[in-house]
Design goal:
Strand order of the largest sheet: 2-34-33-32
Distance between the termini: 35 Å
Structural class: mainly beta
Number of helices: 6
Low-confidence stretches: none
Pathway: Protein modification; protein ubiquitination
Protein name: F-box/WD repeat-containing protein 12-like isoform X2
Mean pLDDT: 90
Strand content: over 45%
Domain F-box: 1-45
Pfam families: F-box-like
Shape: globular
Keywords: Ubl conjugation pathway
Oligomer: single chain
């Protein structure tokens, strides 16, 4: 008779197995079944697969680690397959009397499957209201009173359960995300050109740029003024806060004024008679920029090349150094390349990982490394792309062709490979003119569908997770 492995020996062997192998081992006999369900085995599988700090937070709730692993694997399988009715449920959500200008998720981006999961988005509209919507139920959660002017932008702080809006006159307000109660307000002297939520490690804050080129740093939720800085006099200014909240990129489009980067600590803790710590980048005619999400301070800027005025993308690393006067900003160029002559000027730009930049030009989606190697190009849409959303697992595009396109990343190669998967279709072209925005969380996708009568509705696509199916495990 062959010797039998003891429980400790079996557990050690099973620790080298993947999920599918563990499920097969559980079918051998009672002992193997018992060992294969060990909590620590499934916990380690979950941590190996989803513990990245950029991935949605794991929340067990009432589930076991095995149940969580199976449910989340099923969710990813359904997101990649995208079969209508079987993998997701689509809902049309109407309520605004005007067009929707912006939307954002105000629910935290966590993955849980114990019945407590909920996706909530917030929208602002030309009908002068801000509203919250339950994505799964397809219902309105709350609506603000009618505001003095049309709302044009919003920023969300899911962890604080806070929403910030600004109207076309420059009136900023904060709202409690759970019930829509107004918290505080702040009036700009002119209209706003940018609104940026910044999750600074010490304290979250709000950045606002006016149409006159002044940048304001405000506390949240009280909207108390921390500092103001004239960045580009009399020029509408765009703002981008770095992933770690330590840097702010400010630019004015197609200008001879070079873009600037600010060290946010100097905006929050102002020293009297001293300007904030900043530096001007050595490029002109900036058109777009984005941060590399996996790096704390890697910035990619699209601009015109000074020699022949072709479009180029230059990548910088930002840092600080101590000097006699205090802290100085340090900028180091690490890569630069020219875009192909045949490419139309891109109107959307996003970063992925630390080495990849995604560009949208007309109806084409193109991927480059920061050194200029073209990784892929997709022409899945029939009309121009209007919006792009990127995270660690997916890329979503919205288009005037009344569809959303879903792409999935495969990171097993040296550079991430993007796979085109399927379309999510909107309503009828008789009533709608196309999608204008797209956002997503861990379990749903929401697009803004513009109607031909000048209003907008939301279309939500919620992915089904009914049970942790073994067939959905890699």
């Amino acid at each position: 008779m062959e010797p039998q492995l003891g429980l400790h020996e079996l557990l050690h062997v099973f620790s080298f197995l993947e999920a599918r192998d563990l499920l097969r081992a559980a079918q051998v006999d009672k002992v193997w079944n018992e060992v294969s369900r060990t909590k620590e085995l499934w916990r380690q599988l979950c941590l190996r697969r989803w513990s990245s700090y950029k991935a949605p937070q794991m929340t067990l709730g009432t589930q076991t680690w095995k149940e969580y692993y199976l449910c989340r694997s099923e969710l990813e399988f359904r997101m990649e397959s995208g079969r209508p009715e079987k993998d997701f449920i689509c809902k049309a959500i109407a309520g605004h009397d005007g067009g929707i200008d912006e939307l954002a998720y105000i629910s935290t981006n966590e993955c849980r499957f114990d019945g407590q999961e909920k996706s909530v988005v917030c929208t602002v509209s030309s009908d002068s209201t801000v509203r919250a919507w339950d994505v799964q139920e397809g219902t309105e959660v709350w609506s603000s009173p009618l505001q003095p002017a049309a709302l044009v932008n919003l920023a969300a702080y899911p962890q604080l359960q806070l929403v910030v809006t600004v109207d076309k006159r420059g009136l900023i307000k904060t709202w409690k995300a759970e019930n829509g109660r107004e918290w505080a307000s702040f009036s700009l002297p002119t209209s706003s050109s940018a609104l940026q939520a910044c999750d600074h490690p010490e304290t979250p804050f709000l950045l606002v740029a006016s149409a006159e080129g002044v940048m304001y740093a405000l506390t949240v939720p009280q909207l108390q003024l921390l500092s103001w800085t004239s960045v580009f006099p009399s020029s509408p200014t765009s703002l981008l806060c770095s992933p770690d909240g330590q840097w702010v990129f400010a630019s004015t489009q197609d200008s001879d004024l070079g873009p600037k980067v600010f060290y946010t600590q100097s905006l929050l803790c102002v020293v009297e008679d001293e300007p904030p710590v900043s530096t001007t980048l050595p490029v002109l005619l900036t058109s777009r920029a984005c941060w590399a999400p996996d790096e704390t301070a890697r910035l990619m800027v699209m601009h015109r090349n000074s020699d022949n005025m072709r479009l180029a993308i230059t990548t910088y690393e930002l840092g600080t150094k101590q000097s006699r006067k205090g802290v100085d900003a340090v900028v180091q160029q690490i890569a630069s390349f020219l875009l192909p002559d045949t490419m139309m000027p891109p109107h959307l730009m996003k970063g992925h990982g630390s080495q990849v930049v995604l560009l949208v030009s007309g109806l084409e989606l193109v991927l480059f490394t920061i050194q200029g190697l073209q990784l892929a190009a997709f022409q899945d849409h029939q009309k121009p792309i209007t919006s792009m959303w990127v995270d660690q697992s997916r890329v979503l595009t919205a288009s005037f062709d009344l569809s959303l396109r879903v792409y999935m990343w495969n990171k097993e190669n040296k550079f991430p490979v993007l796979k085109s998967c399927y379309h999510l279709l909107g309503g009828s072209h008789r009533w709608a003119s196309g999608f204008t925005h797209v956002e997503s969380d861990s379990v749903s996708i929401v697009g803004v569908e513009a109607r031909s009568v000048g209003t907008s509705i939301l279309r939500s696509y919620c992915f089904n997770v009914q049970h942790g199916s073994d067939d959905c495990v890699d």
